[in-house]
Amino acid sequence: MSLEWLLSAVIIAVCSPTFGHFESVRPLWTRVARWLAYLAVTGVLGASVGRPWTLVWVVGWPTAGLVFHFIWCLRNGIHPVTSEPRDRYEQLRNARRGSSASVGAAASGDGLSD
Hints:
Blueprint: H1 2-19, H2 28-48, H3 51-75, H4 86-96, H5 100-108
């Protein structure tokens, strides 16, 4: 099972610093919990169903996330690598959390927030 753990460690080591600055709106505990859940599923799969399915998980889950990310960004007019325009990216991230009305009113300067 060492190959699965090595691939998981490499994915975490590469993805965390590379894409972590885009996750500035999420609390640290949710970012850490997501990686811990990824490792927990890796361990459970390795112990129960074996290497082939564990490798499908280790490589497939991040790949599926990457494909979803590219499709979502392109549909919403955002560059999938640089997240430009950054204000549009932040607006969509906040809208997903249900706070778009307050962010939009405050950013538009329409006087409603005074």
